Amino acid sequence: DSSLGSPVAGTTVTGNGRVIFQLSYTSNEPFTLNNGSLTNLSFPATGAGVTQAGAVTLTGTGRLADQGGLNPFTVSGVISGSGNLEVAANGVFILTGNNTYTGTTTI
After folding, report:
1. pTM, 2 dp
2. How confident is the model at residue 58 (pLDDT cuts 50, 70, 90)?
3. Do 62 and 56 meet the contact criterion of CB atoms below 8 Å apart?
4. Burial class (CB in 10 A: 0-12, 13-18, 19+), 57
5. Beta-carbon count within 10 A of 47 CB
6. Are 40 and 50 in contact (CB under 8 A)?
7. CA-to-CA dists, residue 105 to 14, 22, 23, 58, 102, angstroms
């Protein structure tokens, strides 16, 4: 879990940037989304999918996209901040954190 640098420092995704997860993967890295997105593209169908266990902070619009078909995209880390959340899913998308963000939600 160090492909983007130190998982403790976190990564900021801005300006329509995307972080794409492929294959079965669990990320503990915190992300800040300021008009950026986290995307599950895990193929072929394995059932394991992608889990974002690190916190997600919304400072602008943040997009969570599941394009992994039968592989679920689970966000178990807390989603916080004042930004808006957009969810785009053509697969299985699961939010399990005690989320505290105050912006709007668009599905």
Report:
1. 0.86
2. very high
3. yes
4. buried
5. 10
6. yes
7. 19, 25, 27, 11, 9
